[in-house]
Amino acid sequence: TSRTIQADALFTSTPGLTLTLRIADCQGFCVYDPVHKVIGLIHCGWKGVLARVIPHSIELMKREWHSDPADLFVGAAPSLCKKCSEFTDPRKELPGFPPDLIDGRCADLQEAAERQFDASGVPRSSFERLADCTRCNPDTYWTYRGGDKDEVIKGNTNVLTCALL
Fold it and tell me: What is the pLDDT averaged over residues 25-29?
């Protein structure tokens, strides 16, 4: 059966259950705990960075499955690069965002997310990012900010999936 749930994070320890995340320019992360056999997906746009969805997700894994962040592996899907994460006034629009990650009208959302994984105890050596930018590569990825707004609203998005085997 198939089910759609509106959430910024999904985790499972059920073998064979496939999790799917739809993203356009936001960051998508696959998190895996090989010790406790838990896998999950996190959707993290600028609102998710501000809401601290990453640390909340890691805390959920610790609480529900006794995951140790030092054991986790994280893979990041393509998302907006720093130069494409443009805002009108990021210092006002992103309250509490690290000021050293703001350059003019652009905010480094990728580094902000990676710092949240760091602060949660996930080692950088266990983190890997596909470096492509969705907006810089509109022929490869659906991009809300790069011209596909109407198509993304219709449901055409990039997809990240994972499952425990």
Answer: 98
Nearest by Cα to 133 from 145, 149, 151, 150: 145
In angstroms, the CA 94 to CA 107 distance is: 9
pLDDT, tens digit, 9 for 90 and up, residues 135-144 = 999 999 999 9
φ, ψ of residue 158 to 5 degrees: the values are -80, 150
Q: Are 79 and 141 in contact (CB under 8 A)?
A: no
**In 10 A of CB 124, how many CB atoms?**
10
**Predicted TM-score (pTM) of this structure:** 0.94
**Among residues 162, 147, 145, 142, which one has the least CA distance to residue 23?**
142
Burial 46-79 (b: 16+ CB within 10 A, else e): bebbeeebbeebbeebeeebebebebbbbbbbbb
